[in-house]
Amino acid sequence: MLQKREKVLLLRTFQGRTLRIVREHYLRPCVPCNSPLCPQPAACRNEGKLLSSDVTHYVIPDWKVVQDYLEILEFPELKGIIFMQTACQAVQHQRGRRQYNKLRNLLKDARHDCILFANEFQQHCYLPRERGESMEKWQTRSIYNAAVWYYHHCQDRMPIVMVTEDEEAIQQYGSETEGVFVISFKSRQERENESQESHGKEYPEHLPLEVLEAGIKSGRYIQGILNVNKHRAQIEAFVRLQGASSKDSGLISDILIHGMKARNRSIHGDVVVVELLPKNEWKGRIAALCENDSDDKALGESPSEPMPTGRVVGILQKNWRDYVVTFPSKEEVQSQGKNAQKILVTPWDYRIPKIRISTQQAEALQDFRVVVRIDSWESTSVYPNGHFVRVLGRIGDLEGEIATILVENSISVVPFSEAQMCEMPVNTPENPWKVSPEEEQERKDLRKTHLVFSIDPKGCEDVDDTLSVRTLNNGNLELGVHIADVTHFVAPNSYIDVEARTRATTYYLADRRYDMLPSILSADLCSLLGGVDRYAVSVMWELDETSYEIKKVWYGRTIIRSAYKLFYEAAQELLDGNFSIVDDIPELKDLDEKSRQAKLEELVWAIGKLTDIARHIRAKRDRCGALELEGVEVRVQLDEKKNIHDLIPKQPLEVHETVAECMILANHWVAKKIWENFPHQALLRQHPSPHQEFFSELRECAKAKGFFIDTRSNKTLADSLDNANDPNDPIVNRLLRSMATQAMSNALYFSTGSCAEEEFHHYGLALDKYTHFTSPIRRYSDIVVHRLLMAAISKDKKMEMKENLLSNKDLEELCRHINNRNRAAQHSQKQSTELFQCMYFKDKDPETEERCISDGVIYSIRTNGVLVFIPRFGIKGAAYLKNKDGLVISCGPDSRSEWKPGSLQRFQNKIISTTTAGQSVTFHLFDHVTVRISVQALRCHSDTIRLEIISNKPYMIPNTELFHQSSLLLKSELVKEVTRSMEEAQLAQEVKVNIIQEEYQEYCQTKGQSLYTLLEEIRDLALLDVSSNYRT
Amino acid sequence: MAGLELLSDQGYRVDGRRARELRKIQARMGVFAQADGSAYIEQGNTKALAVVYGVPRGIGGVRSRALPDRALVNCQYSSATFSTGERKRRPHGDRKSCEMGLQLRQTFEAAILTQLHPRSQIDIYVQVLQADGGTYAACVNAATLAVLDAGIPMRDFVCACSAGFVEGTALADLSHVEEAAGGPQLALALLPASGQIALLEMDARLHEDHLEQVLEAAAQAARDVHTLLDHVVRQHVREASILLGD
């Protein structure tokens, strides 16, 4: 039975009158206590997360502690935390939604050992607020009272520690109840009041929320996400418009926010509200190159034509996260002068302003990368205030830098916990994993009837797709795609599922990878290896014998035994009729000649048939949606990103395309199936058509070379890109293609309930519906799709659905999370590659080392320099034509460049540098030049590659042999070399010399199993070039 | 901050109820002696008074309004000036009261066996003394009791309850705070024995897929209300019979 109480609140209305509100308040005898010690778990209805039973005491933080020190409570080391509802509400009211959501996520996260106790709804815990009692006192009293009740509820078996900041409370309650201890929270740092800047406001105050909301509605203000220009973080930021507001205001482009003052304390990523300035105050963006370290130094360049400019009047949602920072070096500390307690630290990310923290360890932490959080940013302070969280590692140390990249991308990869591993099936030599009889009953058994095989890159461990093809009795063909059945092992909402969802994808860095699933699954039980029984989810099509028309399709769970684990090269050889490769196929090695011949014929027939079918499907797709963009695109991207060269050969084999096409087909049909069954809650993948404006740069560049690019549709674009081929210079076509990819938007996951059916379209693949189904081992989206497919199958069979599917809203949230994580994965991969590039060039002397001089192609022109692409290393960077002293480059008769006084003149597709002596040199778009590569070492940020033009002639290779050798400088080698030198350095430090392990870990596991998966990743990578200049 | 969290992750509403729980209901019949029937109900902090003048009285006022085949049901709704937090004068006959009167009339025309009393009039007056969400439901429930008290034959009780929809969950019996948040709200008057719907009203937009869920919540709540009202009626009859007996 509920008890009714009444709460009287006095609220102040907007007009300033006092309003007396009476609210009901119902109390109940039983509220879930979520403790394993609960004497009546049935009455308490404890569901979901319980506190762990191996703690020595429970911790109950006071409301003040929850408000101020939430990040300390977030540490996984702190166990058995009970958040009282009173405290949570205080956070919600005092700290706003962002902090409250953090707390909510903490409570939801199954890995954190903390629960919420709804003390205000429990009849013995609830205390009405007394007359004249302050809110704070009442909150503390409520929490203490609830703590006492909780202690007695658990039959006094578990001591409870209430932590508080309130000295009075400690005095009052400290010794009141035995077993409930009230102690103070000793913070590791002394916080001081920020008083030194109280005089004079640095920034205008933010407007109140109601005013902002009203302003947005009336169109006076505009809402958007703040995006700081990485290269001019001090001056330029843009606000990308969000949703409806862009339509109303009629603005197409983004809004420029010029200077820190106009930015008004907003930080990169915040959702801000902007007021447009009058037109005469509009400014243009600066097209000149500038170095990151030079602050808002006025460059003598004339900016481009004015664009809408505004100032921030309020922040709707702060998007603060953990930031990696560096402490200033010793000399700088002294120059900071009087207040040595407060230190300005420089974030690793250029876009984040300096943060003021107070610590006494500044000197000790000088050489380390450190994580901090921002606490507040008062209008009286130039910089935000923050506090120190933890140390990552030494500056310049490989591990430290990698950890930095991970933190900056909010990637958290702790080893899988014991609880998670306990859920995993066992597969040891003593206790091998077997197909269970029940599963055998339920699944279709393909072990005897189908010839199943996989085609993957060499040395691949995680095989998640296999193929089969056979002739049916009625003469038709049957094509099958069999995908590892990960969902069989990963139950929804199990610990491992929660972990996989949080990770969302496997992260590949340049030298390592962080798996989404434990290796027992990813490399063993889920991997469809040759010659062992495995569970699979299959899609099988019945095709017409000659026309390959799809007649029937079957989806379901199966058991398969892959007969061959082929690699691409071998499959291609077999396809070409070159049987000498047979010796490389282990499955065929130990057979006698006769059966070997028979088996081989069977296999060759299957591969041949597959290729034939794939060709046909591809042609059909080309005809009716018509686009050749993808296939060519990939080759280009792969060439350009040289780093991935080692994974696939230079010329893509037809087998690649065959496998890719089968996977696309499977994805497409699964997308159709789940969408038909769950029109509002299916997870699909869309690729929106790009905006035409974004193609303007591409068109301009192509014009410079005399090509015309038609960007009206994906078909015309692909065709005109095919035609734009300079026979003398293949790089031109590559660069044009990469510009085209950059102009496109990213492919994204979405929930079908959240947008209209027309938007489902996949531009790149020219399919109306598409999803990801074929790699559940390394993508969480595929796991979700598998579950949807299983639900759809049981729906077809009129069986009760076993699993609760995600609602549209939850799925939307999940999609956003996965998209976010994918982006983080791409960023971290790119940053780690750059890190290795820098480390590679770091210990080479640019003046003497031959490798540091290379051929480059100009692909973009700025007012004071050019952007250069170096095909040999896949590096893109800026080269200045005018240096800091105002000298410009000039080339003598021997084409050697020198710095001389002069001026620059910029045109659409060329830039002319004229010295005062009258000499002039012209650089055209797509000109080949010789550049010297050096590394600019930075303390606070990641090192950057610097390019210097040393000659306006293409780089002549002195020795062709050498070139061939070095041009194959692959990424893995680069990584190896850097790793080795790092290790050597370490060994040198330790006196004891161990045997140097020569076996460096190679990429055992590939980035993908097929060209198709690779293609997806590379294209995503290419589409989102983070370092590229901000485009309008 | 865009307002309160109406439903917490733990499944509690602002006032501590769970999604399908009703507010506390207290009711009394026969509160006025002059009238034929009267009743008072409290649903949480919503308090309503209903008075019924019944069949024996012929048509009052305009005779032409009399219906040849059935009784005329006339409903008037008013709310006390002190019923809400802010003091506001509500003149008689404003649109809101008229609409509510009309809705009540529709509801009771469906429930009262009007054809038994042709050419007569039944007056139902309802006043809300304190409004804290679900006024329509409280009025219907109070009027049902008053009609029963007046001894007017009805097909069944009419029990009403409101329901809302927040974050994928249907909430039964909305309070004022929940109504003010602006989500969809559904008012349902049910004849519980037959499960027939006397009146169904919905404002704001709600996706078709969710309607069933919300409707089910409201119907279940109405059935629960019925149990309570039935109890009240039996109690009242028992008391009355004791008084008469002695």
Largest interface: A-B, 29 and 23 residues
Q: So what's the overall shape of chain B?
A: globular
Q: What pattern of helices and strands is seen along the backbone of chain B?
A: EEEEHEHEEHEEH
Q: Radius of gyration of chain A over alpha carbons?
A: 32 Å
Order the strands across the largest sheet of chain B as they lie in space.
Answer: 1-2-3-5-4
How many angstroms separate the termini of chain A? 62 Å
Overall tally of domains of chain B:
1
Fraction in beta strands of chain A = 15-25%
What is the rounded distance between the termini of chain B? 62 Å
Low-pLDDT residue intervals, each spanning 5 or more residues of chain B: none
Per the principal axes of the C-alpha atoms, what is the gross shape of chain A?
globular
Quaternary organisation of the protein chains: heterodimer
CATH topology annotation of chain B: Ribosomal Protein S5, domain 2
List keywords for this structure.
heterodimer; A: 1032 residues; alpha+beta; 5-stranded mixed beta barrel; 5-stranded mixed β-barrel; B: 246 residues; Ribosomal Protein S5, domain 2; 4-stranded antiparallel β-sheet; 4 helices; 26% strand
Spell out the blueprint of helices and strands:
The complex is a heterodimer of chains A (1032) and B (246).
Chain A: E1 3-12, E2 18-27, H1 41-44, E3 58-61, H2 63-68, H3 70-73, E4 81-84, H4 85-108, E5 114-117, H5 135-153, E6 160-164, H6 167-173, E7 180-184, H7 209-218, E8 221-228, E9 236-241, H8 244-249, E10 255-258, H9 259-263, E11 271-276, E12 309-317, E13 323-326, H10 330-336, E14 342-347, E15 355-358, E16 368-376, E17 385-394, H11 398-408, H12 418-422, H13 437-442, E18 444-445, E19 452-456, E20 465-471, E21 477-484, H14 486-489, H15 495-503, E22 507-508, E23 513-514, H16 519-525, E24 533-543, E25 550-567, H17 568-575, H18 586-589, H19 593-624, H20 629-640, H21 654-677, E26 683-686, H22 696-704, H23 714-723, H24 730-743, E27 748-751, H25 780-796, H26 808-842, E28 853-861, E29 865-870, E30 875-880, E31 887-891, E32 897-906, E33 910-915, E34 920-924, E35 928-936, E36 944-951, H27 960-967, H28 971-989, H29 1011-1023
Parallel strand pairs in A: 3-6, 4-5, 6-7, 10-12, 15-17, 18-25, 19-25
Antiparallel strand pairs in A: 1-2, 8-9, 8-11, 9-10, 11-12, 13-14, 13-16, 14-15, 16-17, 19-20, 20-21, 21-24, 22-23, 24-25, 26-27, 28-29, 28-35, 29-30, 31-32, 32-33, 33-34, 35-36
Helix pairs in contact in A: 11-26, 19-21, 20-24, 20-29, 21-25, 22-24, 26-28
Chain B: E1 25-29, E2 37-43, E3 46-53, E4 72-79, H1 95-111, E5 121-130, H2 135-150, E6 159-166, E7 169-172, H3 176-180, E8 185-191, E9 196-203, H4 208-245
Parallel strand pairs in B: 4-5
Antiparallel strand pairs in B: 1-2, 2-3, 3-5, 6-7, 6-8, 8-9
